[in-house]
Amino acid sequence: MDKTVAYIAAGVVVVALGGTYLATALMTPSGEDAFAQCRGGAVAGDAIGGPFTLIDEAGQTVTDQDVITEPSILYFGYTFCPDVCPLDTMRNAQAVDVLANEGISATPIFISIDPERDTPEVVGRFADNFHDKMIGLTGSDEQVAAASRAYRTYYRRGEGEDEFYLMDHSTFSYIVLPEYGFVDYIRREDTPEDVAARVACFAAAS
User: Fold this and answer.
1) Is residue 162 situated within a structural domain?
2) How many structural domains does the chain have?
3) Where are its TM segments located (predicted)?
4) 10, 37, 136, 206: which has the fewest Cβ within 10 Å?
């Protein structure tokens, strides 16, 4: 199985089974899911999330522990994206504002899947345009691929040899908590209010 097929297969599993992984750290002593009341989907068997090393907008190497310091909404996209990425990124930023109005601090994180064009400066400007708290990350091809594998995302460069190529990619966002890691995913149809309510639930239960 080649890498593209493998990523597609993983994405199908996420869609079909709900994309939620119950890691040992999320279980109570009785074996119950500590966040069951917050989850939007069923339980899947493959781990989602994990450590990553990327480059921030200042050109500094950072890890997941450096950037995930509070409830976070993580999204993989690219700055040249004409439609889906801006809409999803704006929705995540708006959810952070809804949470702020409720007294809950959260961080939106944007990870580029297009490091060829998305330099630290480019991804930084993109993130800053959406929210002053948004963290924009990029990296080498290998670093981005490793982060994508950790979150079971799919991406592939489209046809075209010039600088105007598009990227095909999955469109889930991920709710991530410090110490726990990934706890649930967000679908495209979820509204800012939906996302905020889910993040607030996880924050209260953690």
Assistant:
1) no
2) 1
3) 6-27
4) 37
